[in-house]
Amino acid sequence: MTSRFAQWTLDAHDTRKMAAFWSAALGYEIEHDGEAPHLWPPSDAPRNSMTVWLQPTDAPKSGKNRNHPDLYVPDGGDVAAEVERLVGLGATRVDVGQRGDEGFVVLADPEGNEFCLLHRRHPQGA
Asked: Most C-beta atoms within 10 A of its C-beta, which of 14, 63, 78, 106?
């Protein structure tokens, strides 16, 4: 038996604002449980899709994240259009030292947490 990813937990200062951003970005449903919203995949998401939990914190973010989610546009969608949609939701473009020929675009959520939008998904992705 091996372990599988179940949830992405993200520390956040303003959990409601971050829930609104990530819910809109991913199409997830928000379940408010006090100050720690939980985001659930939509009914048409692949089986065993990760949930998102926004954990309240007062600690400041410092430096580049040591880990981050990689997103993709389903069904060969338009990556440039998705970048613009995410920016419209509150994301920002981020330079973490990319050369310009990577297969992804680096963005940050409204609290500065980096994430990538892949140009294409690995063919074995579930």
From this structure: 106
Arithmetic mean of pLDDT, 95-117: 94
In single-letter form, the type of residue at position 56 comes to P
With a CB cutoff of 8 Å and minimum separation 6, the contacts of 5 are 50
Q: For residue range 30-42, what is the model confidence (pLDDT) as tens digits?
A: 998 777 999 999 9
Asked whether the beta carbons of 107 and 83 are under 8 A apart, the reply is yes
Alpha carbons 56 and 13: distance in angstroms, whole number? 6
Neighbouring-strand partners of residue 115: 107
What lies within 8 Å, CB to CB, of 124 at 6+ separation is none
Tokens of 71: 């997103």
Q: What is the pTM of this model?
A: 0.90
